[in-house]
Amino acid sequence: MVASVARGEADLGFTAGTVGTRDQLSFQALLDDPFVAVGPTGGLLAENRPYALSDLIRMPFIAMAPGTSVRELLDGACARIGRQLEPHFEVSHLATAGALVAQGLGVSALPRLTLPVLGSRDLLIRPIADFGASRRIGLVWRSGRTLSPPARAFLKLVRSAPLQTVAWS
């Protein structure tokens, strides 16, 4: 989506993360999506409590592939606690991560809003006590470009809304 906006193919786009160092783009944060631990029922996350990231990455860990925004945030969280992630599996699709976890092959750490992609599997979802970051969801547009009236109205509406955090429930 960011590339489509940068090329002028789209006026606005929703994205996870920020737009990096692209000078020509602006970003409006909409909400923060915290990471949660995901495990198989009856497995490694059976205790209903928050888990430390250092504990999670010592378990058989299923990670998103390098280069994804989810993996970048996970690697950054590991660096903040002085650890390096050594996953048992690296996958390109969230549904694959969910399937591997559901089969009892390990645990994962994923943004809360991605959980519906995992399907209706019986998974345990637990807070991560010390992740220290969340995935920022926002709107991106080209700076200095005149937006269409509908795009301007939508951007104005988005800017008027306070930043949200996805609640733990």
UniProtKB/TrEMBL annotation:
Pfam families: LysR_substrate (PF03466). SUPFAM superfamilies: Periplasmic binding protein-like II. Residues 2-160 form the LysR substrate-binding domain. GO terms for cellular component: cytosol. InterPro entries: HTH-type_LysR_regulators, LysR_subst-bd. GO terms for biological process: regulation of DNA-templated transcription. PANTHER family: HTH-TYPE TRANSCRIPTIONAL REGULATOR YBHD, NITROGEN ASSIMILATION TRANSCRIPTIONAL ACTIVATOR-RELATED. This is LysR substrate binding domain-containing protein. It comes from Paracoccus tibetensis.
